[in-house]
Description:
Blueprint: H1 2-20, E1 24-25, E2 31-32, E3 38-39, E4 45-47, E5 63-72, E6 85-86, E7 90-93, E8 97-105, E9 110-115, E10 128-133, E11 136-143, E12 149-154, E13 166-171, H2 197-209, H3 214-229, H4 233-259, H5 265-301
Parallel strand pairs: 1-11, 5-8, 7-13
Antiparallel strand pairs: 2-3, 3-4, 4-10, 5-6, 8-11, 9-10, 9-12, 12-13
Helix pairs in contact: 2-3, 2-4, 3-4
Amino acid sequence: MVKLLSAGALVFIFSAPVLAVEYEDHSGMLMDHGDGHLMDMAGGMVMGQNTTTLPGGCDSIAETKEVTVHAGHKYAEKFPGRMFAFDTQEFNVKPCTKLTIHFINEDNVRHQWMMHGLPKYLYPKGMFHLEVSGPAKISGTLILPPGDKTYLVHCDIAQHMEKGMKAQLKVGKGDGDLPSIPGLTAYVVPDDYKGSLQTVMAAVSAAAAAAPVVVAKTAAVADKVAPVVQQPKEDSVISGVTVIGLAIGLLLAPFLAKKFKGMSPSEAVATIFDLLRTGIELAVKLLSDLIKRVISNKNKILPGN
Ligand SMILES: [Cu+2]
């Protein structure tokens, strides 16, 4: 019993620090490499840090502000089709604000809070950038320029922005909105589900109903079918076959129309089956001829022993 109790106490003592800190805090671990570039051995990074130099046009620091940003998969759950997100999609600050971002990455992958479009004389490549493999926290500070401008904030890890980790930071009133920000602005490239098989089939039956005007309709149908051809491969195979079938059908339509003229529906069906049977018989005959020829060739080549 005493053993059990002491084991329990040990577990409690060792789990206490784990319970207290859910993520690794990189503040104080960073080494200053100059030019606002700070790094640590655990993969935390700050670039474009500026705590002292005023951007041109700022007489003084207008305001000192601290913002905590969370990043992770769970913040994308409310945005259909998105995979990653920040917990905030728009930041608003006054011109000449000294802004400290506390970036908390809650995923077990690497994320960034990367800002673009800053003056290049002050921020290398016009960027301010926090980056860390999570779960972890990292903090950095910059001083924003004057003027109304909207800045892009995103995670630049491949596909993370496209999957939703995108936001905007407006200094002053900003100068417009950026596209494809989850929950805020429309997608630049919206998903298109219009070119379905049903659309194609509707176009086909419409064309079949107006068979005599074949040539004009073929062009119209081709237009309708074209977007479907650009669909992913599996779909394009179907639509490719559909297009070929449609073309053959439209070419044959006048012939068949002539052949079936004056026939009752049952006679027409009988004729179709007759044609099919003739076709199949011909195919079987060709195939058997081919097989026979291959076998006889083999017999000639192989020595008869
Ligand atoms: Cu990311």
